[in-house]
Amino acid sequence: MVDNGSTDNPVPGWMVKYPELKFIRSEENLGFAGGNNLGIREATGDYLFFVNNDTEFTEGLVETLVQTLDTHPEVGMISPKIRYYDQPDVLQYAGFTNMNFYTARTSCIGQYERDNGQYDNITGETGFVHGAAMMMRREAMDKVGLMPEVYFLYYEEMDWCEQVRRAGYKIWVNMQALIYHKESISVGSKSALKEYFMNKDSAISSRKQTYQIKFYIDKDTLQKKLTHY
């Protein structure tokens, strides 16, 4: 259990109440990536399951994702279907489109649609996992490193997905696994805090993607010239 910079330190009381758990305390808020990385450094196991604190599990969620990774070693990261908790028949996530590298934008598939099973047959590649619920193969993480801490609250998982993909793994979604999400409970659905970090971290992501595109173009151009000569 990681306490990521709470104003009042709850860990001493937790240690008494839950002696079987290991607690990690950060005196400052390290953000989404930094807080997760504190836990990652101490975690064991072949797979790591990252879920927001405002989610509700359903029966078979973990088992379904684990089975998928067990039977598909090429998959580095996977997310389940996500529905809104306060509108339980409405989808939040059924996958992401690929990134448009000219605009650094992507679209969330199925968002705000009523779930009539229209995506239930989808188990396979997607543009990106969803940060509210994503399971990662430790082997893939060992190759690419920890969650990128250059971001504070958003876009970390998209950057991580690109790193995992470049390491040779696939990014999947399994719509047979389901989780409910109480969207933006932590910062508020229309808060100034959310808007600030959404825009700041989007700019960071766009700049990183731009540099990556330039590198790929320059590399390909150089390769063509070397082949020509």
General description of the model:
- The termini are far apart.
- This protein has 229 residues and is of the alpha+beta class.
- It contains six helices and nine strands; from the N terminus they run βαβαββαββββααβα.
- Residues 193-219 and 221-229 have low confidence and may be disordered.
- It has two domains: 1-44, no CATH class; 45-228, Spore Coat Polysaccharide Biosynthesis Protein SpsA, Chain A, CATH 3.90.550.
- Strands 3, 4, 5, 6, 7, 8 and 9 form a seven-stranded mixed beta sheet that branches. A two-stranded parallel ribbon has the order 1-2.
- Helix content is 37%, strand content 21%.
Task: Write out key terms for the chains shown.
Spore Coat Polysaccharide Biosynthesis Protein SpsA, Chain A, 7-stranded mixed β-sheet, 9 strands, alpha+beta, globular, 6 helices, disordered C terminus, 37% helix
List the helices and strands and how they pair.
Layout: E1 2-4, H1 11-17, E2 24-26, H2 31-42, E3 47-51, E4 55-57, H3 61-71, E5 75-84, E6 91-93, E7 123-125, E8 133-137, H4 138-144, H5 156-166, E9 170-181, H6 192-228
Parallel strand pairs: 1-2, 5-9
Antiparallel strand pairs: 3-8, 4-9, 5-6, 5-8, 7-9
Compose a concise summary of this entry.
The chain is of the alpha+beta class and 229 residues long. The protein contains 6 helices and 9 strands; from the N terminus they run E-H-E-H-E-E-H-E-E-E-E-H-H-E-H. The chain has helices at 11-17, 31-42, 61-71, 138-144, 156-166, 192-228; strands at 2-4, 24-26, 47-51, 55-57, 75-84, 91-93, 123-125, 133-137, 170-181.
